[in-house]
Structures are given as structure tokens and as C-alpha cells.
Design brief:
Blueprint: H1 2-26, H2 35-52, H3 58-90, H4 92-115, H5 132-137
Helix pairs in contact: 1-2, 1-3, 2-3
Length: 138
């Protein structure tokens, strides 16, 4: 069933690359614009859609989660490597924009963490082993 998660990722990736190429052509650029990001959004939306319709077995969901978690760091690393050469040639503007992007991300994460509602408290830790010595000591 995990192979279906891989197939879903492949379909989303191909569709994202195609849509990124179309977006690049529409903007008058001869390159893919946001294809990988579009692919990740398609994967997220496809997973949510399939979950709500009970079309996603648990093992397939695990496959989608695995590839989604693996896909993002690999793509970010590839993009960072490609952009590093042009950033070094770009001068201080590229460096300032990178620092600004990191600062904005840090601020957004801080705001999200502060506005998040606390989760309900559990009744206690689950008992893994029935050990009479532990229950007597308490």
C-alpha cells in the first residue's frame, strides 16, 4: 500500500512541474516557476481530499506522509545549492533578502506558537506494565 503513496507523489510531482512550466510561460520566463511548490500543495490537497472521502487506507496515508516528509528537505537542499551560486554572484541584495526571509519565517513561527491553543490534558500516562511494587510505592 505504501507504493500508492509513491504513485500519488509521482502524479502530483509531474502535474506540478507541468503547471510550473505553464506558469513560467505565462509570465514570459523560460523556466519552471514554482513547480515543486505546486506539487507539494497538490499532494497535501489530494491527501486531505482522499481522507475526507475515506479513499485513503492507513498504509497509503503512511506512504504519503513518508514521501511528503522526505520530499521537502531534499527539494530545499537542491534549491539551496542552486541558489547559492547565484546568491554569491548577486552581492549584498541576495544576502539581505535571505536574512529577511529567515527573520520573517521566525516571526511567523513565533506568532503561530503563541496563538496555538493548548491541547487537552490527558488523565495520566498510560500504564505499560503492571508492576505491583510501583503501585505500592505510590
Amino acid at each position: 500500500m505504501i507504493i500508492f503513496g509513491t504513485a500519488l507523489l509521482a502524479v502530483c510531482h509531474l502535474l506540478g512541474i507541468f503547471l510550473g512550466d505553464l506558469l513560467g510561460q505565462a509570465l514570459g520566463v523560460k523556466t519552471n516557476v514554482g513547480g515543486v511548490g505546486i506539487a507539494m500543495l497538490l499532494l497535501i490537497f489530494a491527501r486531505i481530499y482522499m481522507q475526507r472521502r475515506n479513499m485513503l487506507p492507513k498504509l497509503t496515508e503512511l506512504g504519503v506522509e513518508y514521501w511528503g516528509a522526505l520530499y521537502i528537505p531534499v527539494v530545499v537542499a537542491m534549491a539551496a545549492q542552486q541558489d547559492m551560486v547565484s546568491a554569491l554572484r548577486g552581492g549584498p541584495v541576495a544576502l539581505l533578502s535571505a536574512i529577511a526571509a529567515v527573520a520573517v519565517c521566525a516571526c511567523v513561527i513565533a506568532v503561530i506558537n503563541r496563538t496555538e491553543r493548548p491541547q487537552a490534558q490527558t488523565d495520566g500516562a498510560p500504564i505499560l506494565h503492571d508492576n505491583p511494587l510501583l503501585t505500592e510505592a505510590e
